[in-house]
Amino acid sequence: MKKVGQYRFHRDHGAQAGRILQLLEKKYGRPDPAHLKLADIYARDVFGDAIYAPWLRVYAAFSGAFKEGWIPDNYYGGVVVPSMKGGYGRISNLKPMSRLIFGGDAFPDVAYFANGLFFTERNVVVPEQELKQVVFRQCDKVVFKLDGSARGKGIYFFDRESFDCELIRSLGNGVIQKFIVQHPLFSAFASKSVATLRMTTVVDELGHVSVRACFLRIGRAHDTHIRNDDEVCVPVDLVTGELARKGFLSDWGATEEHPDSKVRFAGVKIPAFSDCVDTVLQLHGKIPFARCIGWDVTVGDDGKVQVMEWNGEHNDVKFSEATQGPCFSDLKWELLNASAV
């Protein structure tokens, strides 16, 4: 069964990478065959198997060059994740655990539902008839996120009138978060959904935590929240917090402005960026045994940093590797032994 699972995992990644390579060819023309050949050779010589070539081919076609040190996304998921995180990374799927682990006020959590009980953000059991009062004590709108929710799925919005305890019970375990009123800079791009910074942090062999990649995820004008299949992603300079001149749509097509609001990316700096960096570094220091974490962070209209989610499993590295990578070349991940998917 283990081998069957690995086969399906790499088959699916190969198919996904193949579709993206076709999109890139259609948009930007055929990639240099020499670069693709280097990707094939590098997959075999460095990672030990041609199954890791498809994502390297995507990175090379996107970048117009081949760069040593890139990590294929299926190598990251199949080898790095189990080796550098194990079961500890899976804790991130259990959303009521976040405040218990990290403490502080970085997460906008106001309540939880788990195994038939409602809790406050301090893990005090709340009778169902008192829950609405607790939830809307500091806000007028909330978001319920199911455990393991990802890619914009498993997310539900409530106000005081529509809030329904029985509906939440029927949906399953998860977190109730206050709806964040985002910084005006983000609203200029898209006002309905909350823009987030996807920040990737790692813990090296000496225990030092660092930010390795960052991009801004922006929703479309018609979306109430960011959806993986219809988002705009813009690389962010790790030092200055400035947006790249070009962002990319879900089909990897480049754009210099948001497709709906027409607000341009060039020259825009993320508000409170240094605070965002400090926040994720501090938080990752509290769970260093999950060696690589993806964080979804935003900045409210009050300038305060809020952590929407954290992902200790297979967080996305392919976009960062293609646009900002190699992001992890000094960590020697290519030397890790393959393990179960």
TrEMBL record:
InterPro entries: RimK-rel_E_lig_ATP-grasp. It comes from Paraburkholderia rhynchosiae. The lineage of its organism: Bacteria, Pseudomonadati, Pseudomonadota, Betaproteobacteria, Burkholderiales. Residues 174-321 form the Alpha-L-glutamate ligase-related protein ATP-grasp domain. This is Alpha-L-glutamate ligase-related protein ATP-grasp domain-containing protein. It comes from the Bacteria.
